[in-house]
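Archive record
______________

***
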Amino acid sequence: MSTLSKNKSGEAESMKISKKHLNQLIQKSHEQDPVSPIPSSEGVVPFELGKQNRIIRGRMPGMEAVYDRYARLLAQTLTQNMRRSVTVNRRATELVNYKDYIEAVRPPAALAVFSLSPLRGHALMVMEQRLVHVIIDLMFGGNGLLQSSPSKRDFTGIETRMIGKIAKNAVEDLENAWKKVSTLQARYERLETHPKFTNIVPEEEVVVATTFDVVINRMTTTLSVCIPYLMLDPIRAKLEGSYALEDNQVNQLNVSRLSENLLQTRMELCVQLGESRIALRKFLKLQVGDNLLLDQDQEGALKVKVGNVLKFRGFQGAYKGKNALKITELIKPKDRFTDALENSSEPSSSE
């Protein structure tokens, strides 16, 4: 019993010594490195893992080249549908939060939801109210001039269907513009008139927003395309590349204008009565009343030339009291280029 009591007293003394030693160490640490005061809550920025903003650096030259080509294709489509000259220019391409983008859209507006297969997700095309009213007015025979600002009313069923057709054509042009970068299939999904019905991504997500200036009747309106940034992940390397896209597609608008101008060109058509060769001595002695013998038969067809090139043959006559010519034969132009193999095979076949 005595030994047990001695052991317990020794352990107690060691515990007391250790506590004293611990207090001394704590006191020395406070003296050497005093605890800094707790900072106030002012200037503290809250951080939420669920709403972390994505850090994005650099430009996307490939995306800008795609949208420059899209502006030309869209201008052709709108010109053909509205029978008016339309100019479309890309204003800017920027990365913004979807919340900031959608809050800038003032209802009512035409918001077309579409997809770009095989990319996952949906994208958005927005036409402002003024552009919608100008398109509808031109398609129904108006002049497209807005005398006052359009009223804040919803679009009618007929107007919604007409704008839906224009939006579908615009989405198809976007598919053609992407062909130089990647083969994407653009599919028009639906048309909405209020931004609250087009939540294609969460509000905190980053989107690539591109704004276009659509000029009709010297009035500038706005059209924009919004694609989620995460949606472009599979082809981001192609979009960040600094290369120029070659546009080898024929510009149908320029072709139609050139064709129209060429069809209005005036040409000189000459009807040749005949030819005659005489000596210079006889030519110098020609007088009024002399007769010249031509190589043209009296019953033969006359030659019709355009630019000194034989194009037709016909007979002279009269029509509505004036001299006229009846075309009886079309002269086909000669081949300007011949195949060398065909020329080389002709002598062998004759032999």
Remarks:
- The longest strand covers residues 86-97.
- The chain has two domains: 61-259, 266-278+299-335.
- DSSP finds nine helices and ten strands in the chain.
